[in-house]
Write a structure and sequence with these properties.
The structure is a single chain. By secondary structure, the protein is mostly helical. The chain has two domains: about 80 residues, Tyrosine recombinase, N-terminal domain (DNA polymerase, domain 1, Orthogonal Bundle); about 80 residues, Intergrase catalytic core (hpI Integrase, Chain A, Orthogonal Bundle). The chain contains eight helices and three strands, in the order αααααααβββα. It has a three-stranded antiparallel β-sheet with strand order 1-2-3, covered by helices on one side. α1 runs antiparallel to α2, α2 packs across α4 and α6 crosses α8. The longest helix is centred in the N-terminal third of the chain and has 20 residues. The protein starts with a helix and ends with a helix.
């Protein structure tokens, strides 16, 4: 069965030009799967979806990271597609195999002291770039906008009325931010530089 893995790796190298490290990762992942299947009395040619589900569960039980498990599932899927193309397997046992959802890390936030330090550092730079940076930081902090929204600000997406900033978002949502001094004066500086 390891001959099938070797053939698959050769195909990856020839057709997809994968690096040696990637090839070795595939080889390790598939050999680990092969050991598991052999212990269950299965071979690649006769593998069932429940065999692979048991393998994925065993990986979770070992405490492997979800990204590692996702990589292994990807290797298995590609390998079984290869076996089908080579007419070694008739069915794809990975077709019902679900991938674990990768956890997205929570965004990191600054505490009040870190924000004050950041604003002070920007305020100490009296160049045009420093003034613009301070204006951007002041607006970001005062308005609660996302960085992507701040970067996308233009005359068309912002209206300021009585020191209240109204930002048009996608799907007609609106973000409101109070532009009290010095943020209001910073916004004025940004408009002059735009």
């Amino acid at each position: 069965m390891s001959d099938l893995i070797d053939q698959f790796i050769e195909m990856l190298a020839a057709e997809r030009g994968l690096s040696k490290n990637t090839q070795e990762s595939y080889r390790r992942d598939l050999n680990a799967c092969l050991v598991f299947l052999t212990q269950r009395g299965a071979a690649f040619e006769s593998t069932q979806d429940e065999d692979l589900r048991a393998y994925v569960q065993a990986l979770f039980d070992k405490g492997m990271q979800e990204t590692t498990i996702m990589r292994q599932i990807s290797a298995m899927r590609q390998f079984f597609q290869f076996l089908i193309a080579e007419e070694i397997c008739a069915d794809d046992p990975t077709s019902l195999l679900s991938r674990p959802k990768a956890k997205k890390p929570l965004p990191k936030i600054l505490n009040e002291g870190e924000v004050a330090t950041l604003l002070q550092c920007a305020a100490n730079d009296h160049t045009l770039e420093g003034v613009r940076l301070l204006a951007l930081l002041e607006i970001l902090y005062a308005s609660g906008l996302r960085v992507s929204e701040l970067i996308g600000l233009s005359h068309d997406t912002i209206k300021v009325h009585d020191e209240i900033m109204i930002v048009k978002r996608q799907r007609r949502e609106r973000a409101y931010g109070s532009l009290k001094f010095p943020c209001y004066s910073c916004y004025s500086i940004l408009l002059e530089g735009a």
